[in-house]
Queue: 4 jobs
Job 1
Amino acid sequence: MNGTSTDARAVRARADALGLPDDEFRDDRDAAIVWSTLVEPGDRVAGAAIAQWGARGALDRARRGDAEGGRLVGDAVWSAALRRWGPRWDAATLRDIVELAARAGAGLLTPSDAGWPRSLGDLGAHAPVALWVRGDASALAAEPSDWHVAELNLAL
């Protein structure tokens, strides 16, 4: 960990603050924690909303069932996404996930962090909103030119 916002202590400190999904979230990092519990990896609708309004703005619109989401991705697609995410708006589950991450020593990386893997941007709307990490997260941000690969040649 780099000792900044990805640090497990920061995750633990946010666990109590997040409490209920109806709370006003302080920033995109809080909203990213919630999004990580609401959506499946690669959720295009969430990705499009987050790209348009940021994690916090998109979460506020989703929570309200705001019609702007329908204008962004189409009414039927937005409505289906809200129905899919609805059962996951559970404060107890959210607190449990954040507490388990903190106990495991996990930290959180978001696209605004220096250690965020830039290559994830290639996924567009399918990119993750956050990554839960343990240990040294700097390897995630390494460029392919920094990778060291061993070539093994087996003669059969």
Note: The CA atoms of residues 2 and 119 lie 20 Å apart.
Job 2
Amino acid sequence: MKKERFIMKTKKLTVSALMIALAQILSILAVFQAPNGGDITLGGSVPIIIVSLMYGTRWGIFTALVSTLVNMLLKGVITTLPTDLSTYFLMILLDYVLAFGVMGLAGFFFNKMGKGRFAIITSSAIVIFLRFVCHFASGIILWGSFAPKGQPVWLYSIIYNGGYMLPEMIITVIIMSVLSVKIIPKLIKEK
């Protein structure tokens, strides 16, 4: 019994670590990089969403946060401290911790919607939308000074963040639609 639990925990950690690594690789292979932050990736959120679907919300959020930390280290976000620390920490909270942490909520929505193919696709779209909401809020609170003169800050934030988040959502939903036919149900069953 103890050995079986140990094996299951080891498998869970290994799968999660591999998915974090895959998420980083897919994020590095960005199709487009916005000038002031934000990328369109080849499905960089997909591996984290899959972990959340496989192992549930708590583990999904934990994995998403670890993945976020790795991403911040790889992008140099942690190593470059600005002079205004309160703005910096708010940026980390909104644009990284919350924005990418919500990927872990896919398991919650998946379980609430019945665990079928529709639930896989819809929960993926919901968490990407929630990520957009975090970036949108950050755009209003932190990055409003980048808005063109005369343009409302909220409109600037929608246009800027929607410009990369909408394609990111479409790519993620397409990938999850393909994977939801056989691969994801098999992964969830064999977890």
Note: The beta strands are 32-33, 39-40.
Job 3
Amino acid sequence: MAVLTYLPYNQVIASSHREAPLISNDPLADNTDVYAFKSPTDAEKIVLIANYIPFEDPSGGPNWYTFGQNIRYEIHVKNNAATAGDDITYRFTFTVVNEDPTTFFNIRLGKQNQKATYTCERSIDGGRTFTAIVTNGVVPPANIGPRSIEDKTVGLGAANYNALATKAITTATSGERIFCGPIDDPFFVDLGGAFDVGNFRPKGRDGLSRFNCHTIAIEVPVSTLQKSGKAVAQAATILDPDYVIGVWASSSRQMIKTLYAAGDVGYDGGWVQVSRLGMPLTNEAVIPVGMKDKWNSMTPYNGNDLQFAKYFTNPELALYMDDSQFGSAVPGLSALRIQSKSLGSFDFRNGKPGLFGLKGNAALNGTALSEAAFGSVLLPDAASPRAVDLLPIFYTGVPNLAPYQLATGKGGNPLAVGKPFIHNFLPTLGDMLRLNMAVPATPRNDAKFSSLGLVQAAVLGLTDPMYANTNLQFIPNMDGFPNGRRLEDDVTTIELQAVGGVVLAAVGLWYDDFTPGPGANPVTPSLVKVLSFNAGVTKNDTTLKGAFPFVQDPWRGFLGNPYIGPDADVTKPLAATVLSYNCNTGDITFGRIGGDPNRVVEYQAAGVVNGTWSTNVTRQIEAELRKDANSNRFLWIWARYVGDQSSLVNFMYDFRTPCGQARQGAAEFTEPMAVRIMGNPTIGDEVTVEVSGASGPVQLYLSNSRGQRIGQQTISIPGAVELRTVRLGEQPGAYFLQAVTPTERQTVKIIRN
């Protein structure tokens, strides 16, 4: 037998996806993201989400991803800074069984292999004792494909995947609602750009697009999490300090793993924490690689995180936002430049004094920076400038005290009382995601809702006349990151803006191009650059649900057109087909197979006359397309129940093969124009197109696989050979480039992987 007590080194990264050397080789235990937010559908509920298992390929069979056995997955809640350790802990353990070990399929004949169930235990005494609140909880299967999920004979016979996910939501004996299972990974970031030495770019590529992960989602009454058992209705204000919680998640394994010759595995020894996450991107982009494994192994209690404080008070990222350091070497961050002479004197670049020169000054009395308050933490020395803004965001939360109020009403003095907009202060000196549960949720359909969270709340509080006072009032997005974290929040952009000094600016420590004086406008070009900056990907690649657990169903493994034989009946899913095609006239008749016979189907196709959505099944392929022997041979047809986008299916029809040599009129079109795509298929978002032999002006039209035109270029006076760069859409798939002259037309298919 072999005994394994250590894991080898490797690394690839996202929010906290494979962010440290050891955990990168233990994906089932890898905690990728943590969210904590006020439910947008119930003011008395908080939603806690911990995601695990990064970069799940939806078609990653035959052994699809699931929660690991012999792992403790935990969500930790702190609600009282005066107590030691957790105040509430939710612990999840999973059991995996094979219902039909005689097959290599994951799902067959109504049975599922690698089927996971879970037990959830809760502790409310600091982890000394645990009580089971859910046993035999259901974990939905992987979203393999239509035969595995919906087929009543060979599969599970579900109405659809969402029905399985909804059925898996469980109410605990203690009142929480819980969902555990595979989902679309809701995090979004341009991984390729970010980790190519800060190569941030406009319209970057979401490195998590169409990947899944596994989630543990809990909807908890506020009264369960509040330290005195109070409901939101009992809060004194929307920033009541007694409603602040700190949230973090972890996973732990036993110390010894033993591999036996017969294929069995044994586990023994004490439990060791192998992954943890509170604030997003901490271990990702703040903690250096040499300390990442140590960070993952420690809890945020007992002063453990103080050894890492220097990475927040002088963050590496700040070096790339400082032209006296390495700012010019990272042009992707050129819009972000840290204040070096704010209000003429305050320098917040790494190693500079920041506000330390004010330490002991009577002007600090009554503020959070006084020695009687938190000055020893926020102004520790003359070389830790970001202890005043970044450190509290991550380690203590931010109090509703000067200077941490908006500059509105301060009269140019950042130390004066201003507009309240945050209080999530829980001074444990450890990394947690802190949330004030008294703050109302911003409705997701509010015109002022923004993925920039508190940054956008600050913008509104500084610029909108509705909030031009020092009163405490709700500003949209006060419930956003870093006051908790909503699924929509663009934490990458927000944290980069924060390192760039946007929080300092919000409280009145403006950028260097601001000149104080009567009537001076602090909205300077530097501030506009910072607020206009984004990290390249600003939203997820799919929608969110409107109710708990809010995360979206996982991407399906099977993509494309299923084969449906001649014995298809109405129990089969809706599919599109072609019933007839006339090679001479181009007349084509669309049809349907399966689906609900009581519902009417409408069709759309690219390359046909009147190709827009209609219930008319008789159409005609455009003459130019039929007669151009060099054009693409495939016709894309879409079908759906009338007005029901969720039922959309497609079908690719080869209209040339059935006609053999009857491609009438082809001889008439022997013009020499040729269109060639260099590097097709491509993994990038751009291709080079070569057009040669055009007899007149050329129009280039780019359409996606749905027939929607997404780009157009003109070659007014073409030479013998013309090269053009064409930008594709953001999503992988098929695109169609059509080159048209007054006498010629050619269509070429482009595949973006």
Note: The chain has a mean pLDDT of 90.
Job 4
Amino acid sequence: VNTVASENPDEAGRYSMDVEHGQYSVTLLVEGFPPSHAGTITVYEGSRPGTLNDFLGAMTEDDVRPEALRRFEQMVEEVSRNASAVAQNTAA
């Protein structure tokens, strides 16, 4: 589902939007400037209210994955070292 919504800030620059849970691409539109992609936010069913910056800075599954891959690679290296040690001990 693709939904487009916009909100104009008040004189102090404040704005508020109530949104359903889901993933949103945030684009800033400032008169006289080209559109600027601010990022992608994810609003979960249990998300607490917050600022746009709160959601733009929130960790997602994609942020966690690289660390998990690094740990997996370390485990593979350790298993490889252990297998080599077992092979050497068996040959001796």
Note: The two ends are 64 Å apart (CA to CA).
